[in-house]
Amino acid sequence: MPYVHPAVLEFEKMVSDKEAYRRQLEEWVKYSWRWARNDKYKLVFRVQASALRAMREFLDSKGFVEVLSPIVGPVTDPGIRGAKQATIDFYGAEYKVMSSAILYKQYMAASLGKIYFVSPNIRLEPNDSIYTGRHLVEFYQLDLEMYKASYVDAMDLAEELVAYTVKYIKDVHGKELEEKLGRQLPEFKRPFKRYSHREAIEYVNKLGCKNPPREELMWECEKIMSSYHDSPFFVYDYPRGARGFYDREDPERPGILRDFDMLYPEGFGEAISGAEREFEPAKLVARIREMGEDPMKYSWFLQMAKELYPLQTAGFGIGVERLTRYLCGLRAVWEARPYPKVAGIVGGP
Amino acid sequence: MPYVHPAVLEFEKMVSDKEAYRRQLEEWVKYSWRWARNDKYKLVFRVQASALRAMREFLDSKGFVEVLSPIVGPVTDPGIRGAKQATIDFYGAEYKVMSSAILYKQYMAASLGKIYFVSPNIRLEPNDSIYTGRHLVEFYQLDLEMYKASYVDAMDLAEELVAYTVKYIKDVHGKELEEKLGRQLPEFKRPFKRYSHREAIEYVNKLGCKNPPREELMWECEKIMSSYHDSPFFVYDYPRGARGFYDREDPERPGILRDFDMLYPEGFGEAISGAEREFEPAKLVARIREMGEDPMKYSWFLQMAKELYPLQTAGFGIGVERLTRYLCGLRAVWEARPYPKVAGIVGGP
């Protein structure tokens, strides 16, 4: 039986009147210090802090080292379809505010073996993204990377990390979450189900959601698939073309990338995105060009890939506000930031 | 007897040939993935991670909640003399990348009582700052704020926090630090000495360092004073005019601010900067004007100050890279960042 969390349904109702929703969101953003003092949101921010603590505890116990991520740089992850990067003038050069520090993670994985960032990201999303409930212009992700690891290792770790964190939050805040937010956190069954991208397309097609076979899952199809699960699940092996140049193409299966997403159950959608990284310098250049980008912009990265060859790593990123939304059963990610910034709305703190 | 750490002396020798130093720094920044893999720097980054863990453990045990800080905003701390702010185009409005999130800390202290950020900061420092050894364009600070607290409470907490962290690092990494970096961490005597700004000026004058009486301590005078101490120490009660508009003027002693710095011993200089915050809306407007700034730019902040009156808080920020420099006995802060960004040097990762 499909099940969609009431908060997700409530959000859908909110956005059905676009004008009213936008006015409400403008107020929300402009006077955020008001609602940030409500008991409900005090709990949300304490749960967010606990989730960060749980993830750090878990990763530290596995030998990971926390690294302070870059904030700006000459390049940032270009694989953010639809969103623009924020640029600054850095002593006469155009630098970007990180939209995702993937290329920089690999660098430190080569030094320390297993690392993570809690990294600040800015993505200037298109104006319509305010109606999705899952896009913020400003957000944090816990971003990790492992040297000499495969995407299967990364999936195994992601599963353990999410199960540990949800259990931790249930133990520490479960009673309060039920009383104040009506949120009953589930007990997860492990292992989480794993669908290849092809299997996922078949799955949603059977449920009546038509998804182009060589593209990422559409949000609508994701939500339907998510509502048929009571634990998170994986979709892996995306077709080349659907993802960033740094997701490694399988040498045995051309056209298929060694990457994955993890989705939350109950209609909450994407939790995690991860991959093994492409490390063949010539392939990197070709795939950067394929995206319509200039390899010169990535010169430090390409030189590093040559010098540290084979710079073989795998990792993933988990959005902290989306995790908080899931844990607290919130309507939208803008309820999980004390200073929410959403597309096209200016004038808040 | 004065004592300056050998790494500080080594740095002074390095910068005595400005041309050669600049060339060396350009190489350092451009190929940072090379030295980041040396055993020495692997240890530095592990110590940095441990210092963050120690500070979080300490603060969590005192009831503080970690909050994810803003990354950009309509305003950021304007009290960064000499440095420029990095600006982005945020849907047609000019937003700044945080150079310090002080105003935003107060907001969450009003919600949760005691909070901290590990906050990303960008300050476009003047080109000459590469010769100080203590300025990065991109850095992180642990930034905390307490509701209904005084600057004496903040000094007491700062003292405990630093003593705890240094002890923790000595316990966990002491042997390695001695073997690999020749760094012998001291045992601190508490309480740390506290000098009013006036006493500090007298102190350095006696040592032959002439400091204008109503200005902040000059770096040279700080270093001399620091070399006469074997534990960190405080300088408090700065004269109005020397600091940001948000440092509270003492109502009983006009012209004197209820604020402080903590300095490291051994010539390492500033560790912490903190204050009680001004909360009288009229005073805030007057002091923003005094700085030559337009109060309109701070409208959300001024409105919040009125609505939450009296928004009485105190707190401080501790630079993570400067702390790492001190803990590891490094020559300069650019040894404490895996992707160092310094003034005027473009082209690294």
Summarize the structure.
Chains A, B: InterPro entries: Aa-tRNA-synt_II, aa-tRNA-synth_II, aa-tRNA-synth_II/BPL/LPL. The structure is a homodimer of 349-residue chains. By secondary structure, chain A is an alpha+beta fold.
Notes on the protein architecture:
Chains A, B: Its EC number is 6.1.1.22. Chains A, B: InterPro entries: Aa-tRNA-synt_II (IPR004364), aa-tRNA-synth_II (IPR006195), aa-tRNA-synth_II/BPL/LPL (IPR045864). Chains A, B: It holds the Pfam family tRNA-synt_2. Chain A has helices at residues 6-16, 18-30, 32-35, 39-61, 102-112, 151-181, 197-206, 219-227, 281-290, 299-307, 320-328, and strands spanning 65-66, 72-73, 87-90, 93-97, 114-122, 138-147, 193-196, 233-236, 259-264, 269-276, 313-319. Chain A has a single domain, classed as BirA Bifunctional Protein, domain 2 (2-Layer Sandwich), CATH 3.30.930. Chain A is α+β, with helices and mostly antiparallel strands and 349 residues long. The radius of gyration of chain A is 20 Å and the shape is globular. Chain A is built from eleven helices and eleven strands. In chain A, strand 9 and strand 10 form a beta hairpin. In chain A, strands 1-5-6-11-10-9-8-7 form an eight-stranded mixed sheet. A three-stranded antiparallel sheet of chain A has the order 2-4-3, with no helix packed on it. In chain A, helix 4 (39-61) packs antiparallel against helix 6 (151-181). The longest helix of chain A has 31 residues, at 151-181. Chains A and B meet through helix 4, strand 1, strand 2, strand 3 and helix 5 of A and helix 4, strand 1, strand 2, strand 3 and helix 5 of B.
